[in-house]
Amino acid sequence: MNLIRKFATAAAMTALMTASALAQTVLKSSDTHPDGYPTVEGVKYFGELVKQRTNGRYSVEVYHSAQLGQEKDTIEQVRSGVIELNRVSMAPFNGTVKETIVPALPYLFRSEEHMHKVMDGAIGDQIKAAFEPAGLVVLAFYDAGARSFYNKTKPINSVADMKGLKFRVIQSDIFVDMVAALGANATPMPYGEVYSAIETGVIDGAENNFPSYDTAKHFEVAKNYSLDEHTILPEVFVMNKGAWDKLTPEDQAIFKQAATESVAKQRELWAAKVAESRKIVEAAGSQITTPEKQGFIDAMKPVYDKHVTDEVLKKMVADVQAVQ
């Protein structure tokens, strides 16, 4: 009988360990940026909090450096449930979630602080809600700083200097129209193709923030960086709605709180990275210029006229501008 009990106990322990292992759910998350980048580290921090607060029932595996594909590909993957999580720019959603058009508009936000107030408040909540019909739940908005133009041809000090230059842009109609309004030519292409496209002369340059300009090594092939700061576009951290709906209300609360705390962490890392990246590119010989912005702002009227077409978007723009 003792032998039987021992076998039974061993079997029970094995079953318990197997059940425990099966109880852990690993959530896959994608990011195009390299390991150590503030958005990657923000998602990692979110994952640490989730794992800790669910006692290991959930963990997050971050696939950085576009290991799962470029943004367009991973957006489809997370919408279809192939992956559960994705950190991506908001601009590629412009054709799917119309409310994302507003934060993508050039020169809408007066500063990063202004953007924070907008995205942390009622307007941010409105944008989050608009993602759900697309099969996505927004967990957080992350910082991506101010985007500016850079090129290998010449410094840009005015709108006139933009004429005829070819710039890579995010795959977004707003960005294409913004560049056209400035007299330049827009070429939408995946982020991972930009370096070689500049190097081989397919394009003259691109537009992005200092950390991306640095970590993607674009400063090696495009030495002229112009601080026109045309767009202060938040990044969005999303979860497949089907995966979200499988969570208990208690776990959903844990995920939401972890995401909120990861925003503060990511913003802190972002500010430090911007300062570090600017020093790196300046030391490498990049020429930083600050053009007079009013000419760039004045050129944006056709962009607003084309993309802010219905009353919902018009009200959102007015509400953003009213935030102090």
Give the helix/strand layout:
Elements (H helix, E strand, L loop, with lengths): L1 H22 L1 E6 L7 H16 L4 E6 L7 H10 L4 E5 L11 H4 L7 H8 L2 H10 L4 E7 L4 E5 L14 E4 L3 H9 L3 E4 L5 H6 L5 E4 L1 H6 L8 E8 L3 E6 H5 L3 H35 L3 E3 L4 H5 L2 H7 L3 H12 L2
Question: Could you please describe the fold and organization of this structure?
Answer:
InterPro entries: DctP_fam (IPR018389), TRAP_DctP (IPR004682), TRAP_DctP_sf (IPR038404). This is Tripartite ATP-independent transporter solute receptor, DctP family. With 324 residues, this protein is of the alpha/beta class. It has two domains: 23-144 and 233-276, Bacterial extracellular solute-binding protein, family 7 (D-Maltodextrin-Binding Protein, domain 2, 3-Layer(aba) Sandwich), CATH 3.40.190; 147-232 and 278-322, D-Maltodextrin-Binding Protein, domain 2, CATH 3.40.190. Helix content is 48%, strand content 18%. Helix 2 packs antiparallel against helix 11 (249-283). It is globular and about 55 Å long. The chain starts with a helix and ends with a helix.
Run of helices and strands: HEHEHEHHHEEEHEHEHEEHHEHHH
* CATH architecture annotation name of the largest domain: 3-Layer(aba) Sandwich
**CATH class descriptor name of the largest domain:** Alpha Beta
Number of DSSP-assigned strands:
11
Share of β-strand residues: 15-25%
Largest sheet: 5 strands, mixed
The CATH topology annotation of the largest domain reads as D-Maltodextrin-Binding Protein, domain 2
Question: How many separate domains?
Answer: 2
Number of helices: 14
Structural class, from secondary structure content?
Answer: alpha/beta
Q: How far apart, in Å, are the first and last alpha carbons? A: 77 Å
As laid out across the biggest beta sheet, the strand order is: 2-1-3-10-4
- pLDDT < 50 stretches: 1-22
Rounded to an integer, what's the Rg over CA atoms?
22 Å
Q: What integer is the average pLDDT?
A: 93
CATH superfamily of the largest domain: Bacterial extracellular solute-binding protein, family 7
The amount of helix comes to 40-55%
